[in-house]
Design a protein that fits this description.
The chain is built from 25 helices and 14 strands. By secondary structure, it is an alpha/beta fold. It has three domains: 107 residues, 2-Layer Sandwich (Nucleotidyltransferase, domain 5); 181 residues, Nucleotidyltransferase, domain 5; 200 residues, Hypothetical protein af1432 (Orthogonal Bundle), CATH 1.10.3210.
């Protein structure tokens, strides 16, 4: 039986709703797309607040959306807010008022959650997407407040970085300068290139030829979806004419953008089929794409035309097994964590060993720990990043690791999930692992979160204790839960006296958390009955 779902994006420049029909047989089918322009971002970025007038306007729009939902019989809804709300100091007050007046609960997404949903939306176009990322590819996700650049190579996500140069933010900065149109292009490009130069030095040293670029934005993408418009303005080559919608040659795009300032604004808006008031934002988004394409020597630009609403719906369909998931997003999160570890000189082989041991403990303790699949992923991420703090300090590894992880975006993890990983890594270097009262990061740590952190900490500490010598004696170890013991069997002929002798404190903490005693043995000990 088909479900009807509404996905609502309270964005920086507009509030949009898409209504979808979801069924296992037909997949995801868009029924309606409603958009209202509301420039929240300019106000939020300039003042740090959402005014009462803007809150009332949000409520009016959401009330209208509720009427549209009723018309379609939508019985599921998810409402998400992005950077304009995320960066507002009075966001909690605004959200409470909106909920009371409309009945909608707005979920504010962290930047990494928002970009991950956009990324999932692209995967809806699975055939083109999977083919493109076989070659070096950049996903450029352009928002009102920032731009996310994610680099793929050979089907693997190798890095993702957020740059505070979104369309609305750039427009406000240039407008504050009070310059004329003649210098507009130059100054916008200077602002963009100032940040891109740092990105290039850090992440493109041996990858300066990124042949493909995938664009997600609300400004250029709708134009690139119109093949008739592209043909009229000369953006379609013979190759892109027969390609998927939204695909153009980067060289043609850059040439077209250079010619835009020579035409009148009214003529440009008419040619592109957009409202005149949107032209400055379209142009800034185009300049961002141009600067990145030139820096990366991009050949092909593809705008799949997806929005955050598509990502919200895809994630719902994925969780409820309405859609067959072809791309392994979990592997992208893991790949991103390995890239962070590499940046801080982490030992990949040891991280893989510690991760395998920790997951062995996790899987063998399923009947006891009560944790879920997502916690298993967080444990693996913590294992990958367990030694990143050594890059800063060999004395204060835990504190340094906590600071690194909380300051580094891991695409696909929420702020709270990243906080769990940071605490787990911090705690494996503590004499007595604990979680503070939540004063870090101005975030409250509730009891359920505290218990998750302590359980994962206990598992990772046991895993780390099995390789104190760094000699991989427990590679391929076996794990078996017997009554109140977790028997860990080393498949090795080497001496494990060091591991046994230093295992006590870790075993005591593990027993305190789970009521189960971890016992270390060699396979030969088991055979002899020792």
């Amino acid at each position: 039986m088909a479900e009807v779902m509404a996905a609502i994006d309270v964005g920086s420049y507009e509030i949009a709703m898409k209504i979808f029909e979801l069924s296992a047989r037909k997949g995801v089918r868009e029924l309606d797309h409603v958009r209202f322009r509301l420039d929240l971002g300019s106000e939020s970025y300039a003042t740090g607040r959402i005014s009462a007038a803007r809150i009332s306007e949000i409520c009016r729009i959401l009330t209208e959306f509720k009427r549209v939902m009723k018309t379609w019989g939508a019985d599921k809804v998810r409402v998400c807010g992005t950077s304009a709300l995320r960066e507002s100091r009075n966001a909690s007050v605004a959200l409470e008022q909106i909920e009371k007046r409309t009945g909608f609960t707005i979920e504010i997404l962290s930047n990494s959650e928002q970009r991950f949903l956009d990324y999932k939306a692209i995967a809806l176009k699975s055939a083109v997407f999977e083919k493109m990322i076989e070659a070096p590819t950049a996903i450029v996700d352009i928002g009102g407040g920032s731009v996310q650049i994610s680099l793929f190579d050979r089907d693997k996500l190798i890095t993702t970085q957020n740059l505070r140069m979104g369309v609305l933010r750039l427009r406000e900065r240039v407008n504050q300068m009070g310059i004329g149109t003649a210098r507009y292009n130059t100054l916008v490009c200077e602002l963009i290139q100032a940040q891109l130069s740092v990105f290039a030095r850090m992440y493109l040293r041996d990858k300066d030829n990124i042949s493909n670029m995938i664009i997600v934005d609300d400004y250029i993408s709708p134009i690139l979806q119109k093949k008739k418009t592209l043909d009229e303005i000369g953006l379609l080559s013979d190759a892109s004419r027969s390609a998927s919608g939204g695909m153009v040659d980067a060289e043609n795009f850059i040439r077209f953008l250079a010619a835009v300032p020579t035409e009148s604004q009214i003529r440009n808006a008419d040619r592109l089929g957009i409202p005149l008031e949107n032209l400055p934002l379209v142009y800034i988004s185009g300049l961002i794409i141009k600067c990145i394409a030139e820096m990366m020597h991009t050949v092909t630009i593809w705008a799949p035309g997806v929005t955050l609403c598509d990502g919200i719906t895809y994630e719902y369909a994925e969780k409820h097994r309405i859609l067959e998931v072809r791309h392994d997003f979990e592997q992208d999160i893991i790949a991103s964590a390995y890239h962070i570890s590499q940046r801080y000189k982490g030992n990949r082989k040891r991280s893989e060993l510690i991760g395998n041991l920790a997951l062995g403990v996790f899987d063998s303790m399923k009947k006891i720990h009560g944790l879920g699949k997502r916690d298993r992923l967080l444990l693996q991420i913590a294992a990958i990043l367990h030694d990143c703090g050594k890059y800063v300090s060999m004395m204060n590894i835990g504190e340094s690791a906590y600071a690194i992880i909380m300051s580094t975006e891991i695409i696909g993890l929420s702020h709270r999930e990243r906080q769990i990983v940071a605490w787990v890594v911090h705690n494996i270097y503590s004499a007595i692992p604990d979680v503070e009262d939540g004063t870090r990061d101005n975030g409250l740590i509730d009891e359920s979160l505290r218990l998750r952190v302590l359980k994962l900490t206990a598992m990772l500490r046991v895993a780390g204790g099995l390789d104190r010598s760094h000699l991989k004696k427990f590679k391929g170890a076996g794990f078996k839960l017997c009554d109140n013991q977790l028997v860990i069997t080393a498949n090795t002929e080497e001496d494990i006296t060091l591991e046994k002798s230093l295992f006590g404190r870790r075993a005591t903490f593990f027993e305190e958390i789970f009521g189960v005693v971890p016992v270390v043995r060699k396979k030969t000990d088991t055979v002899r009955g020792q």
